[in-house]
Design goal:
Layout (H helix, E strand, L loop, with lengths): L1 H30 L9 H18 L11 H23 L1
């Protein structure tokens, strides 16, 4: 039973990492307008899956000129949540 929980905890950790990479890719896409086609299915998936989380931070962190710091704060918070959740789950095992 312990190895099943180990797989579940690892899957949760990987899910956090994948979401972090989606946030990073979204930021990189915003720097290259020619690649940031909102009608492309991959770009649309990235935008739609990351917007709810980024939207939370955009409400409280306005852009500083043309620079939007909300993705950076979102990634830092996401990593803190990841460490907390995965750490607790490993201790439960």
């Amino acid at each position: 039973m312990g190895w099943i929980m180990g797989i579940v905890v690892t899957a949760i950790d990987v899910a956090f990492q994948v979401y972090t990479w989606l946030l990073i890719i979204r930021v990189l896409l915003s720097w290259v307008p020619s690649l940031n086609n909102p009608y492309h299915p991959v770009v649309r998936f990235i935008n739609e899956s990351t917007e709810p989380f980024l939207g939370l931070f955009r409400r409280f962190i306005p852009p500083a000129g043309v620079v939007d710091f909300s993705p950076l704060i979102a990634i830092l918070i996401l990593q803190l949540i990841r460490q907390f959740v995965v750490g607790i789950l490993w201790r439960i095992l």
